[in-house]
């Protein structure tokens, strides 16, 4: 139960519920009684965050990160922590290592510490096994999911449109003359599933068969690099006619580039996440920027709006952008 549900049951606005919780005099007695009646009936105890940032908020949030050694997750944590600190909030960081039991344990831990909000970086493709834990957490504080999706009340999802980004990159590559697009992925997250669907939908809409795919097991960066390099090299040795590469992470794209260079092949390569890796290779890697800085900013703004009793959308989508470097430039597209 959250203040939006209380407002709906009481037939008043979210702002009115917030004023009642904060003991504001700017509420009619009739509305106050309606809200208090619903709160009593449903045994609703307001979280300190819902009582307003100027009262007894502990000014601390939880951040749930899959793997802090992952450069993309670390960047998201860094951006998020800096923006929260600028708003006067401290952060408690929990790293789960991609293990669902650890994820549930960390969510319970953060809930018990009465944090003002929980920020989750990414989500698995199927999070239903954790729904009971998430529901309980969302009853006590807002849960904000960055580049993931959990469809539950009190959970707010802020995503990059990964589907559209990959679909449009495929489109750009084909317009530039590439016909046989190799797709490389290495995870089974919600975000990865959207990228995969973007690729598959484009290939099928073009009347082709999605034969050129490589799935690398999730692992540390250097292992992913070497395994991708070996997989792409084997594909090329087998005679596959590849004339462009799209990878769901920059490190995978670089592994593919190394295999291509070993074979003396120069074709367009596009990575994803626009990480520092994209600048640390030769040639410099063109990469899709998932706009994590904007996603983090919107997530923090959502938390602050909820604290003020304002409405917030359950799903917000941010457009990605292709950062063009040496491995692919849209200017190469023939008009």
CATH superfamily of the largest domain: Response regulator
CATH architecture of the largest domain: 3-Layer(aba) Sandwich
- CATH fold topology of the largest domain: Rossmann fold
Number of domains: 3
Order of helices and strands: HHHEHEHEHEEHEHEHEHEEHEE
Major β-sheet annotation: 6 strands, parallel
Q: What fraction strand? A: 15-25%
Report the average pLDDT across residues: 90
Tell me the total number of β-strands. Answer: 12
Number of helices: 11
Q: What is the molecular shape?
A: elongated
* Low-confidence spans: none
Helix content: 40-55%
Structural class designation: alpha/beta
Topology at a glance:
Elements: H1 3-10, H2 14-21, H3 29-41, E1 60-65, H4 71-86, E2 90-95, H5 100-112, E3 118-121, H6 131-140, E4 143-146, E5 155-160, H7 162-175, E6 181-185, H8 190-205, E7 213-215, H9 221-237, E8 244-247, H10 250-262, E9 269-272, E10 286-289, H11 292-307, E11 315-318, E12 321-323
Parallel strand pairs: 1-2, 1-3, 3-4, 4-5, 5-11, 6-7, 6-8, 8-9, 9-10
Antiparallel strand pairs: 10-12
Question: Can you put this structure into words, describing what you see?
Answer:
By secondary structure, this protein is an alpha/beta fold. The protein folds into three domains: 3-46, 434 Repressor (Amino-terminal Domain), CATH 1.10.260.40; 60-159 and 292-317, Rossmann fold (3-Layer(aba) Sandwich), CATH 3.40.50.2300; 162-291, 3-Layer(aba) Sandwich (Rossmann fold). The protein has helices at 3-10, 14-21, 29-41, 71-86, 100-112, 131-140, 162-175, 190-205, 221-237, 250-262, 292-307, and strands at 60-65, 90-95, 118-121, 143-146, 155-160, 181-185, 213-215, 244-247, 269-272, 286-289, 315-318, 321-323. The chain has a six-stranded parallel β-sheet, sandwiched between helices. Helix 8 links the parallel strand 6 and strand 7 (213-215). Helix 1 (3-10) crosses helix 2, helix 5 runs parallel beside helix 6 (131-140) and helix 7 runs parallel beside helix 8. It is elongated. The model has no long low-confidence stretch (mean pLDDT 90).
């Amino acid at each position: 139960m959250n203040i939006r549900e209380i407002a709906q049951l009481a037939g008043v606005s979210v702002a009115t519920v917030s004023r009642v919780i904060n003991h504001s005099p700017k509420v009619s007695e009739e509305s106050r009684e309606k809200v208090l009646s619903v709160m009593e009936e449903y045994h609703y105890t307001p979280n300190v965050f819902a009582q307003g940032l100027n009262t007894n908020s502990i000014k601390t949030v939880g951040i749930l990160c899959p793997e802090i050694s992952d450069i993309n997750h670390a960047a998201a944590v860094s951006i998020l922590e800096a923006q929260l600190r600028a708003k006067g909030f401290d952060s408690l960081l929990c790293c789960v290592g991609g293990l669902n039991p650890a994820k549930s344990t960390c969510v319970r831990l953060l809930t018990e510490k009465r944090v003002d909000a929980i920020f989750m970086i990414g989500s698995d493709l199927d999070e239903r096994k954790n729904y009971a834990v998430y529901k309980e957490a969302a009853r006590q504080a807002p849960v904000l999911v960055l580049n993931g999706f959990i469809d539950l009340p009190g959970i707010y999802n802020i995503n990059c449109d990964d589907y559209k980004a990959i679909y449009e990159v495929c489109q750009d590559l084909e317009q530039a003359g590439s016909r046989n697009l190799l797709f490389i992925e290495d995870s089974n997250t919600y975000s990865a599933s959207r990228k995969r669907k973007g690729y598959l939908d484009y290939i099928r809409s073009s009347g082709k068969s999605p034969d050129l795919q490589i799935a690398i097991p999730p692992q540390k960066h250097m292992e992913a690099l070497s395994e991708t390099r070996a997989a792409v090299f084997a594909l090329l040795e087998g005679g596959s006619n590849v004339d462009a590469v799209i990878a769901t992470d920059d490190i995978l794209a670089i592994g593919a580039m190394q295999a291509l260079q070993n074979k003396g092949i120069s074709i367009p390569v596009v990575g994803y996440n626009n990480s520092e890796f994209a600048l640390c290779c030769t040639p410099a890697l063109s990469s899709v920027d998932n706009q994590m800085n904007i996603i983090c900013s919107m997530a923090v703004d959502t938390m602050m709006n909820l604290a003020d009793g304002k409405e917030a959308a359950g799903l917000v989508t941010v457009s990605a952008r292709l950062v063009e470097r040496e491995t692919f430039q849209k200017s190469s597209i023939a008009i």
